[in-house]
Structure formats: C-alpha cells, structure tokens
Design a protein that fits this description.
This is Efflux RND transporter periplasmic adaptor subunit. With about 400 residues, the protein is of the alpha+beta class. The protein is built from 4 helices and 22 strands. Strand 18 and strand 19 form a beta hairpin.
Length: about 400
Amino acid sequence: MRKLLRRALLALFLLLAAGGGLFLAFRPVPVPVETETVTRGRFEAVVEEDGRTRVRARYILSAPVAGRVMRLGLRAGDTVARDSLVAEILAAPSALLAPRARREAEERVGVAEAMLQQASILVERAAAQQVQAEADAARMRALQARGAAPLQQLERAELAERTAARDMLAAERSRHAAEHELDQARALLASADVPPDFPERHEVRAPVAGRVLRVLQESEAVVATGTPLLELGDPAELEVVVDVLTIEAVGIAPGARVIIERWGGPEPLEGRVRLVEPGAFTRVSALGVEEQRVWVVIDLLDPQERRAALGDGFRVDARITVEAVDDALLAPVSALFRRGEGWAVFVVQDGRARERPVEVARRGARSAMIAAGLAAGESVVLFPPSSLREGTRIARAQ
C-alpha cells in the first residue's frame, strides 16, 4: 500500500514538473521596446539642409589690358586698403610693329592714295563732260525753238545732259569712298606707332578695403584682357546660402528664424532668412533623380567675434523654421505608423501595448503635433517592431 502511494506521489510530482516546464517554455515573453512620454511644448516645423557661407560683397579684379602681369606679392588672407596697388601689367606692344606688317600697312596707304587720285581725275572728266552736255542741250533748245533743228536732236541732247549729270554724281561718290579707304589705311598704319603718352605699365588698384580671398593668377604670365587676377572681400560680412526643394521653399518666408549648426563652433549660430530667390534650378541627386531646387539666402545675426573662425565657402547645416506653435501636444515621429489612410501609435497601458489611432496636425523632423488621440503624460512605443500587436506584453528596454 505504501509502495503504491509513493508511486502515485512520484507520478504526480513528475506530472506537475512537466506541466510547469511546459508553462515556462511556452508562456508569452514581453517584447522589449523603447518608449517616450507625450509632452506639451513648442512645435517647430523646420527645413533642414546643408549650405555654405559666402562673402556678401565679392570683387573680382581683372586685367584691364592684354599684356604681361607681374608676379603678385599678395597672398590669400592679406589685408588691402582702398585704392592700394595690387597688380601691375606691362602692356603688350601692337602686332603691327613687326616689319612685315608695317610694310603691308604702308603699301595699303599707297594703294589708297592712288585710288583717290584716280577718282579725282574721273570727277574732273565727268565735270567737263557735264558742262559740254549742258551747253549742247542749251543750243539745241534754241535751234528747235526757231525751227532750225528737229525734235529728235533735242531729245538726244537732253538725254546726254542727264547722263552726264549722273556720271558726275557717280564720280563724286567714288572719290568719297576712296577718301574713306585712304583714312582707314592711314589709321591702320598709325596704330603701329606707339604714342608718346602710351603707358608702359598699367596699375590695378583695389576698389574697396578688404582682404584677399583668392589669388587667381600668382605667377608672372601673359594674360588677355579680362583675365581674373584675384578676389577681394570682407570675411566679416558673411551670409549663408542653402539650396532647398521648391516644394519646401514655398513655405519659407523672409524673416524666418534659422539655426546654424555643425559649423565648427561650440554653439549654434542664429540667422534670419533674407531672400528666397525667385528662380529655381535643376540638380541631380545622389540617387540620380532630377530635383528642382532654389537658393535661400540667410543673414547671420551673431556678432563677428562669435564666428571669427568662419570664412568664405565653409560648410554649415541650417535649420529653417517654417511654422511654430506654442503649447502643442508633441509626440515623437518615430512612434507613428500608417494604419489605413491615417496614423496610429502604440500606447503603453498596464505593461501592454494598446494600438490607438491619432490625428496628426503637422509633422516635423523629430516631433509631430497631435490634434487628437493622445494626452500629455502617456507613453508611446518608439520604432514599433512588426511583431507588436494589440495587447502584447512589453518591457522597456534598458
């Protein structure tokens, strides 16, 4: 009897142990998640893009004449005063100073003089013929009036008179053209001679006081007219330019607040939008997609002492405020997920995830402004995993 009782107790113990093991093995395990509390505060819808700084007033000094520019003694960062000498150019002599070119110019003058003499002789000839034709026509008119000459001879005399007048006009025009050709040939020859007051050196002076931003032509060299030599500007007068998508730019208004971050300093800088340029441009993104973008110009508000190390062409990150609402209900964007045509979140209640639809008024980069569906102080699940379902037990990740 005792042996049967012990066997029964042992079997019951084994059965309970197996049941406990199965329960522990197959019981639901809480899903570890990250959570964040819904709060009230200031909501800001921002546009975040990277940009660069640039000097507001930039001056590019170019060569006023073609010639040999002397080696510039300036370097990037040097300070120059207004009207100070920054470059010297030795003007290039005229190509007509070559003996062959000069000889050709002299021969052109000789040809033009001969053509003028020929045209003058033709004018004298045409004038004599015109005088004779006018006299013949006058005599024929007198004879025809007395009936001593036929009408046909009068008509021929008048025709000769008109022809002589036309020949005289053509000869005068030919002489006028020959005079212009002679003047042109003489001017070409005169350009081969260097005038006494022709400067051997041309000086390039700074139009404003500032600092040298870039030296574009360092060594001595022969340059053409208009060749850029160096850039001047005042690095203290900086602005920031940011290219943004046109669909985002329509919401940016002049005067909007801007935070300049990751510029290299310990604290962000303050800025204000001065201009959204009216013309857009096309840029191909890293994914090969054509984008329509537009430049936004930003003024820096911090004193120059706080950004003394910031120079021309430096990279910065800009956060442009598009809209700001005080005392808004804020939830992290990472807690939102699509449910049908709307949005939803998982709210933490009694250690379980409860799905709840929410109405999003506006989304920002990090926070969303909630119009309905949540209350301040509630905890929501961040980055909800695909395995999370309604009523699933959760555990806050450490």
